[in-house]
Design goal:
Blueprint: E1 2-15, E2 41-45, E3 52-54, E4 57-58, H1 68-83, E5 89-102, H2 114-118, H3 137-147, E6 158-161, E7 164-170, H4 171-174, E8 181-183, H5 203-207
Antiparallel strand pairs: 1-2, 1-5, 3-4, 6-7, 6-8
Length: 212
C-alpha cells in the first residue's frame, strides 16, 4: 500500500508590486525612485510551526493536533485568505511536499509504466500491468489481490540460498535475488524466520496473509 507523507507546508504568493510600499520599501520617496519589475514576483510564505509556543519554547507538532497535516493546511489557508485581500497579491496557493513510500518495505513508491509492464526485461512476469508497484513482493501481491490478477510466484513462501543454507528470505526480501531456491509450505515443515536484516518475519504467517 502506498503511504503519503506531507511536510514543508507553505503558501506560494505571486506579487505584482505597484509601489515601493508593496515591497516594504518605505521612507525613501525623497531620495529614490521606484522601478516596477517587468513581471510578477513569487515568494514562499511559511506557516508558524504548530508546536512553536513562544520564542524560546516549543513542543512536537503532534502534541498540538491529532491531524498535523490538516492543521497545517488550515493554517496555510488562513494565511492565503488574508494575503488575497492585499492589492499587490495576484495569487496565493497552498502547497506542500509529498513523499510516497511503501507501507511494507518503506522504500520509495514506484510503479510500472505501460511500456515497462509490457517489456519482459522490466516487468515482474507476464501478468504485470501498468501501475503495479516495483518495490517489494508484498506490495505486488496486495496490488494484484485487489484487482484479481494472479499472484507472483504462486505457492512460494520463502527463498533459500543454496550456498548458505542458514540464509532464509521471505517472499518480500528474496524475490529479486538471482540464484535463490524458491520454497513452498511443504519445504518448511517447521516454519522459518526471514534472516534479512532485522525483518524476522515468520514466512508461513506472511504466506497466510497475516501481519500485512
Amino acid at each position: 500500500m502506498k503511504k503519503t507523507y506531507r511536510d514543508e507546508w507553505r503558501v506560494m504568493v505571486t506579487l505584482k508590486p505597484r509601489r515601493p510600499a508593496d515591497l516594504g520599501l518605505t521612507g525613501l520617496d525623497e531620495i529614490a525612485e521606484f522601478l516596477a519589475p517587468s513581471g510578477p514576483i513569487t515568494v514562499a510564505v511559511l506557516p508558524r510551526r504548530l508546536g512553536q509556543l513562544s520564542a524560546g519554547m516549543s513542543v512536537p507538532d503532534d502534541c498540538m493536533s491529532r491531524d498535523v497535516d490538516a492543521a497545517y493546511r488550515q493554517r496555510c489557508e488562513e494565511i492565503a485568505a488574508e494575503l488575497r485581500q492585499r492589492p499587490q497579491v495576484e495569487e496565493a496557493t497552498v502547497t506542500c511536499t509529498e513523499t510516497h513510500t511503501c507501507s511494507h518495505c518503506r522504500c520509495g513508491w514506484e510503479v510500472l509504466t505501460a511500456d515497462e509492464a509490457a517489456d519482459a526485461s522490466t516487468n515482474f512476469d507476464e501478468h504485470s500491468v501498468e501501475g503495479e508497484p516495483v518495490c517489494c513482493n508484498w506490495a505486488i501481491d496486495e496490488f494484484r489481490a485487489e484487482r484479481g490478477i494472479p499472484r507472483s510466484d504462486e505457492g512460494v513462501v520463502a527463498y533459500r540460498n543454496p550456498d548458505q543454507p542458514g540464509v532464509l528470505l521471505c517472499r518480500g526480501h528474496g524475490y529479486a535475488w538471482a540464484g535463490l531456491v524458491p520454497l513452498g509450505v511443504d519445504d518448511l515443515p517447521d516454519g522459518g524466520i526471514c534472516t534479512y536484516g532485522d525483518c524476522g518475519r515468520d514466512v508461513l504467517i506472511v504466506e497466510a496473509g497475516e501481519g500485512r
